[in-house]
């Protein structure tokens, strides 16, 4: 396993119990997430810390690990974050490998990352391996019929329809697969609020 960023356990002057979910894709995904005490949680592709206080109020003594690719952006975002009694670890992604032992995490979630996975089936297999029995995955993404027409997604994006992602989940071995169609509020370059649809698919090991 590569060296972990030293970002653990600072003091946060905020009452996280008063936090509410924002109308964005990451908060809407976390709103549905059920976590127990001492849960070990994996996020694939974190790019900010805005959602972490909300995540940490989902259960006591949550241990959070984030796997990232854009090292400078991610470490900059996390370097000033202050956690209250929760463990935070950052791990750089190596190809399709997740450098954690088998049956380690209770939950995994990821938002808008599947478009960039070179081999989604192999990567989902890695996620499956690191989840405990009965562990869950929650994956949020914009479907091909909407995302492929956006001007900023013409390069380096591979979009999928829900049926394709559901098949990948089944091929990986996930069961109790559930699908939700949701929408988030985003702001365009002119400052106008837009409603953008997205999908959340969840499965259990």
Q: Summarize the biggest pleated sheet.
A: 7 strands, mixed
Structural class: alpha/beta
Note poorly predicted spans.
1-18
The end-to-end distance, rounded to whole angstroms, is: 24 Å
Provide the residue-averaged pLDDT. Answer: 82
Reading the helices and strands in chain order gives HEHEHEEHEHHEE
Biggest sheet strand line-up: 3-2-1-4-5-7-6
The number of strands is: 7
Count of helix runs: 6
Into which percent range does the helicity of residues fall? 10-25%
Strand proportion, as a percent range, falls in 25-35%
Q: What coarse outline follows from CA principal-axis ratios? A: globular
Oligomer: single chain
Radius of gyration: 17 Å
Structure, explained:
- The chain has 205 residues and is an alpha/beta fold.
- 23% of the residues lie in helices and 29% in strands.
- It is built from six helices and seven strands.
- It has helices at 25-31, 52-56, 71-79, 120-130, 144-147, 162-172, and strands spanning 40-44, 63-68, 87-92, 105-111, 131-141, 175-187, 193-204.
- A seven-stranded mixed beta sheet has the order 3-2-1-4-5-7-6, with helices on both faces.
- Helix 4 (120-130) packs across helix 6 (162-172).
- The longest helix has 11 residues, at 120-130.
- The protein is globular and about 40 Å long.
- The two termini are 24 Å apart.
- Mean pLDDT is 82; it is low at 1-18.
